[in-house]
Design a protein that fits this description.
With 178 residues, this protein is mainly alpha-helical. It has one domain: 2-Layer Sandwich (Protein Binding, DinI Protein, Chain A), CATH 3.30.910. 74% of the residues lie in helices and 6% in strands. It is built from five helices and two strands, in the order αβαααβα. Strands 1-2 form a two-stranded parallel ribbon. It is rod-shaped, with a radius of gyration of 25 Å. The two termini are 29 Å apart. The model has no long low-confidence stretch (mean pLDDT 84).
Length: 178
């Protein structure tokens, strides 16, 4: 997952978490306890993210194998066409069809990979937001701020950081322990 996507995901998670917790506070359940988490660390160390990343790599590797096989066949046909100097129209036609198949499959796999990666990222964010909300409510926190290096949080007392607690909670929740 590239860093731009991770940053977008983290910013999105921050906004969603903030809105949910602000709404909770505005409904009269305020305790005025403010804590913060390192969003990048929570995202990157969440077991679901690691699991889905592993699944994505498997899918990506299998698709690459298919493309490599198609490419090898295309090169063999290309060499055969060269040997006949393009005079064998059957081989030339077969080469053109295989080239089109390869290019179509490559484009399809790139789109499918991007879609799958986006789906997995959304799944991770949705789960993190749900678990953070549950954690905040169970600990009577009014706010959980996400520190992500984009200026959202400029200062926080170390005593109020709950990143480690959040990581333990969300990973245990994901494993069905809580």
């Amino acid at each position: 997952m590239n860093s731009k996507n991770v940053i977008r995901i983290i910013v999105g998670a921050t906004v969603i978490s903030g809105v949910v917790l602000l709404n909770y506070w505005l409904c009269g359940k305020q305790q005025n306890t403010i804590v913060w988490v390192n969003l990048s660390k929570v995202y990157n160390e969440f077991d679901l993210k690691k699991e889905l990343e592993g699944k994505f790599k498997i899918v990506q590797t299998e698709r690459k194998k298919i493309l490599d096989s198609l490419e090898l066949n295309l090169k063999v046909l290309g060499n055969q066409v060269e040997l006949t100097k393009g005079k064998d129209e059957v081989k030339l036609y077969e080469f053109q069809m295989k080239r089109e198949e390869y290019l179509t499959k490559k484009e399809q796999f790139e789109q499918d990979n991007a879609q799958l990666q986006g789906d997995y990222n959304q799944q991770v964010l949705t789960q993190i937001n749900q678990y953070v909300k549950e954690y905040a409510l169970s600990n009577n926190y009014s706010y959980v701020l996400g520190a992500d290096g984009t200026g959202t949080l400029m200062f926080a007392n170390d005593g109020k950081e709950v990143t480690g607690d959040i990581l333990v909670y969300i990973n245990n929740k994901y494993k069905g322990i809580n």
